[in-house]
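#structure-requests
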Amino acid sequence: MVTKELIDYLSGFVSEKRFDLFKKIVEKRTRYLTVVLEDIYQPHNASAVLRTCDCFGIQDVHIIENSNKYDVNPDVALGSDKWLSMHKYNSAEENTLDTFKYLRKKGYRIVATSPHTNDVGLDQFSLEKGKAAFVFGTELKGLSRLAINNADEYLRIPMYGFTESFNISVSAAIILHHLSSRLHLSGINWSLSQDEKDILVLDWLRKTIKSADKIEKQFFKLKGS
């Protein structure tokens, strides 16, 4: 209840157009599909993936930092990281398995975006089996052997040319466009819960409003009086 009251209060400090946009976009956000980036080191491609996630309504991005620190290129991301929920895993020397373990507890299938003996194409990938976390690897070497060996499923993008692979930003765009389009046309309940929507809109308001923390303190002061 406090969250809704706080949203109503903070919404008075942004334009009606901006607040309506928040309410419109949050209805299209999903956690049914999520993206995992393993040890990405090129900020240009890494930031392009964030932009793609925002465009297709993918709210969460999970970032594994083993050898490489993930840096955002603001000229490429164009502020998309501001609207996403970024989760970083860097507490150990090797963080891939801990990330997979966490995601499985959240109900995700770990899907390696890499050719494999048991892989399926985009059209054959089952969305109905449940939530899916798509793991993308480095531009040069792809996914680590550890990630590939511990994935639950494998997904490939059909290709018909001489080049063996797309770069990571193109791969993410193709996969997310195809599968998010299918998801929206399906009968799957892919939307956020109302509580998740409220928390997200509140977060966006806080990131948008100048001195939001002071305004929020004022709200609680008025509420307590």
